[in-house]
Amino acid sequence: MSELLQFHVLIPWILGMLFGIFVGATPGLTATMAVALIVPVSFYMPDPNTGLAMIIGVSFTAIFAGDIPATYLRIPGTPASAAATLDGHQLARQGRGPFALKVDLLCSCVGGLIGVGLLMTIAPQLARFALRFSNFEYFWLAILGLSMSAVVSTGNTRRGFMAAALGMLLATIGLDIISGAQRFTFGNAELMSGLGFIPVMIGLFGVSEVIRSVVAGLDNTMGKTPAGSADESNLRTAGGALWSHKGTVAKSSLTGTVIGALPGAGADIAAWAAYGLEQRTSKRGAQFGTGEVAGVIAPTSANNAAVAGAWIPALVFGIPGDAVTAIVLGALMMYEIRPGPLIFEQNPEQVSQIFNIALITQLLLLPCGYLGLRLFGWILKLPRSLVMTGVLVFSTVGAFSLRNSLFDVTVMAVFGVVGYFLEAKRMPLAPLILGLILGPMVEENFRTGLIKSEGSFLPFLTRPICLVLLALLMLAFVVPPLLRRFKPRQT
Amino acid sequence: MPDNDEQSPSADTKPSGDVWLGGGMIVLALAVFAFSRSIKSLGLGENFDPGSKAFPLGLALILAIGGAIEIWHSRGAAPSSQPGDGRIKTTLILLGGLGAYVFVLPWLGFALSTLALGTSMMVWLGNTWLRSVIATTVLIAVVYGLFVVAFKVPLPGGVLNLPF
Known about the structure:
The structure holds two protein chains of two kinds. By secondary structure, chain A is an all-alpha fold. In chain A, 72% of the residues lie in helices and 1% in strands. Chain A has one domain (2-225, 236-484). Chain A contains 22 helices and two strands. The N and C termini of chain A lie far apart (47 Å). Chain B is mostly helical. In chain B, 29% of the residues are buried. Chains A and B meet through α8, β2, α9, α17 and α18 of A and α1, α2, α3 and α4 of B.
């Protein structure tokens, strides 16, 4: 851990987290975009751990920062912050916005710490169990992840499945990993190694957002600066509120971690589920939506815990829990870190560094988040046209810089347009990304499994773990609609 | 200046089929079927490997079926609101600008093409020329400091062979 606490690591780490605060707190920019934009920068860090710290730091801080405009403006900075618009915004209207956000900050830290604690406890045990998995099980696991992401996606399930299939189809571009045959390369040497994952991500989440904002009609101001209030709360008063709701924090963090660990179910679903659970079990459930502190604590503890939870399937099986983790997973692969059960045996130092980074990030979130609260008024004063132009410029440089390739800039622009049109047609992008990441895993394990079984499909359907995964796959179609029932109707 | 004559696509509407989306998926699937013929594959059955064509074809089939269902579900549904003329114009100008930027990037280099795109975008979005030029120049300077100076990334210099 001491090597992480060096100036040359901490400074880019904190700067990365401040970038996460800026993007997360800017209405319209998402945590996914923050991570996609920081990845190219992280590759130029002299030490891989510094790069990893920046990426992991951004993923946690952007989720918290999304709660800031959700509270003050009732505009969630990220989808995971939507549940925070309910009671947080009501508190802000009562002049207690700073108090709500300080509670939120502490909850994000504690929720994140609980989530990381569970990740550190569960992941190694699960990895030992996962060593029993072969191609047959990995095939079903990847299918489970894809199906979950399609089933829980916003929009509708049919389009979720189409998006997943589209992502898998895009993943087939390049050299076939088994036969070496060229697929859809059209004689272009740059397509031999497939579509660059990061340029695709930057296009889908950065450029498409710029197009969407401009076409929808850009309001050049991002919102009214929150008015000053008589709220004289400090972290101690917020800590007192947190202590009196310690059961809610624990319950919501646990809910967040478990839901975050389900492939495809991200921090947004975790936050709504925790809010709904707390509303139904609290004695003051009827007061929820009117500025109840527990209504702030539950979703904000859960959303950061879910980010940690999403790391469990990502590290153990290489199956990302959500879009943010999918990008982080893609970045890990570019660092030549191959997630999966073997990493726990072959490279335990790397795993413990990832755990340490996630742990320290929660502690750094406190000062970085506090600074974000102070700077939010300044962020709102920035002209939106400047922010969008900046996103476009950084997207271009980010896409180019990974391989010094103008072809990647073209890929980014094309996927910016594709992402814009798909979102305009309410096609969810998260299953597309998971398809892109998991497509090769599905194909390789399916084909290798068939070669091993000499063409028989029976092992896919009769091995005990395969049967369990098949049962989970069926549950995947039943549980998400139940989880949605926890989502209260917005007024 | 972009206008705002249509509700945001993210507005909550009841899910229904979309002819354009369904049609697009079917066209994509047909393209995959056509281009798959050029894949040199071991073929079905050899070494028990379904071959390199199997997955793309299977996925194209899923997309085609999904597209057909989309079109089926669009029957009888209220037609989706059409974007106004102003909005189509905005989209085309923006996409044209983005395409032009990508096209001229290798010739003009990063600095000049970004200055042109950034300034015109900011002016188009309602800022003054001076403010737009200054803001874009500052952005380019930040990129130069971070990527060219600190990370040693050789950004495209163009035919004028600018430093970036």
